[in-house]
């Protein structure tokens, strides 16, 4: 059994297929290999961050080479990968077409799916009951490999392991939860932890080769971090990421919520770091954002819904550059 409290830090300085493949292999090796994480003949959802249509170099989305590489590893392990997300804006088909992942997936015989078909589920997290609506497609697979992009986040300081699973919430239900939260950041962060527990991944691989700093989850600046971060416990991963970015864990809403709900491990003395030494791979002067309110007013909700529907149904996809 792999160590739940282990987090791996693997150097990766470019998105060349060879270097990414070697880094992913090394990441899995610290946990007994991919065969120790997923089973043969299982259906494995690969959940990238496909927020919206964007060029990979802007660092808004998980780089397609990372997604493709993990998909190949899953196929080699005798399982069936499925690439899925529910973008905040537009459709996953347009996003994958723009970055060329659609043709790669077709050649590999891999389905790309929208995480729709919402299903309401009750979950107990830390003694609190939550009624959440998430994609039934995410609940019906045998395993999830979480593939977040390391980015600054204007409302949560940064996004890594836990927040990426919010993409399993179908469509504009995500923005509606912002409206429901008002300015209650604790409520919103608690909900994210419960959502993570509901669609808990078997493994997480954070694309931190190039990250985003200063502003996010879009509109920030690319930042070279040169790391693939891996692990089983998303909370432990986010705690290690906070340390990498020199963020006080008390300032990270998701980590505060995890402590309130007694989910995951945050004690660095109990988290085994594999690969690179944490202190030696910290990016220099990573710029974190000033936090803005979590709540959306009704006008922002309407604007977001209209933009999403236009991009999904009318907006023309752009070619990869």
Number of strand segments: 12
N-to-C SSE string, H for helix and E for strand: EHEHEHHEEEHEEEHHEEHHEH
Radius of gyration: 18 Å
Helicity range: 25-40%
Looking at this structure, what is the CATH superfamily? LarA, N-terminal domain
> What's the quaternary structure here?
single chain
Major β-sheet annotation:
10 strands, mixed
| CATH architectural label | 3-Layer(aba) Sandwich
User: Spans of 5+ residues with little confidence (pLDDT < 50)?
Assistant: 316-321
Shape: globular
Structural class given helices, strands, pairing?
alpha/beta
Number of spatially distinct domains: 1
Named CATH topology: Rossmann fold
For the termini, the CA-CA separation is 43 Å
Strand content: 15-25%
Describe, in plain words, how this protein is organized in 3D.
The protein is α/β, with parallel strands linked by helices. The protein has one domain: Rossmann fold, CATH 3.40.50.11440. The protein is built from ten helices and twelve strands. Strands 1, 2, 3, 4, 7, 8, 9, 10, 11 and 12 form a ten-stranded mixed β-sheet that branches. Helix 2 (64-76) links the parallel strand 2 and strand 3. The longest helix is centred in the last third of the chain and has 16 residues, at 298-313. It is globular and about 45 Å long.
